[in-house]
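Your task:
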Amino acid sequence: MKTNRENSEKNNFELSVSDKITLLKLARKTLEEKIRHEKMFTPDTSDFSENLKTNCGAFVSLHVFGKLRGCIGRMTGDIPLYRMIQKMAVSSAIHDPRFNPVHPDELENVDIELSVLSPLKKISDLSEIQLGKHGILLTKGHNSGVFLPQVAIETNWNLDEFLGHCSRDKAGLDWFGWRTADIFIFTADVFGEKQTSK
């Protein structure tokens, strides 16, 4: 009963505009402190909403002049959302193996985008995947790969391409490896500094 209630609460989880602005400012301040001063920022959480203290999965994406500069996240959360955003912001800037660590001189050109995730849903019918709405997680043995919902929009891939690239490029399987993998879908509340500054 407890699990069902928790799941119901999570399914009704929705961030307000104020929550989103708070998270983006927190991510920015955390990056500034870590990269410029090598310190972890400790926020005053007394005015934080319950949403920001709810355990959630999240990804932080960094872009410079429109190009990806780092992206790291977790599918599920075992810590409050605000702390998850802080940890993933630092990881995206410093620990993404595809990029060199973000340099202090780059910070003013870094755009921050956050993706707060819904619970995972395992599917057996590909028709349940709505491109642009759903992200996917493929798992097979020790291999796994993830695409956030916005990837399909940014690349203009069809469903076969979305699955194939995730299987080959992210999960380390072959192009059709998704056919024998477990497929999970999720939605993401995606927002960034560019959108909220308009």
Observations:
- The CA atoms of residues 145 and 166 lie 6 Å apart.
- DSSP finds six helices and eight strands in the chain.
